[in-house]
Design brief:
DsrEFH-like, MSMEG0572, 4 helices, 28% helix, five-stranded parallel β-sheet, alpha/beta
Length: 160
């Protein structure tokens, strides 16, 4: 039987060189925009949280950044908590809420499709995190087209 002779890892050890950056740190030029779209279900995978964090980062790089929640993506923008709204039932339970609130507090805009909100998920506008702007289903495409016309950075997120 082979023996393991290497010392066990411990708190504070590094596994990778996290300080080396290969690419230059890109900043937005004056007036540049970014749009991050979400067609993903809350808690079904990591992409919802990862791209909210990407939107925060784009905003901090100087891009006028918007998030578009449509289809199942509206579930990212719904108020949650247990046993009451705002109560965190377990660590990370409110990660979408807290990060969307942080994004909006830093100047980011969040839009949520009214059709998906009501017809697909049975919620009304009062269910949204305060600060999220509800939009008509026809606005979903126009939001994307306006950002494309503005040569915005567009990150589309789809999960099925």
């Amino acid at each position: 039987m082979p023996q393991v002779s290497k010392e066990a890892h411990k708190d504070g050890d590094y596994f990778v060189n996290y300080e080396e950056k290969v690419f230059e740190d890109v900043k937005a030029d004056e007036g540049e925009k970014a749009l991050v779209t979400f067609h993903t279900v809350a808690f079904e995978g990591s992409i919802g949280l990862v791209n909210i964090l990407n939107a925060i980062r784009l905003n901090r790089k100087g891009y006028e950044t918007s998030i578009l929640l449509y289809g199942p993506g509206v579930t990212l923008g719904i108020q949650r908590g247990f046993p009451t709204l705002g109560d965190e039932a377990f660590p990370g339970h409110l990660n979408f809420n807290k990060n969307l609130e942080k994004f909006m507090s830093e100047g980011g805009k969040v839009y949520a499709c009214r059709f998906a909100l009501q017809a697909l998920y049975g919620h009304g506008e009062p269910s949204l995190i305060p600060g999220i702007t509800p939009i008509a289903p026809q606005d979903v495409l126009d939001c994307i087209l306006l950002h494309q016309k503005a040569n915005a950075v567009v990150l589309d997120t789809w999960t099925v």
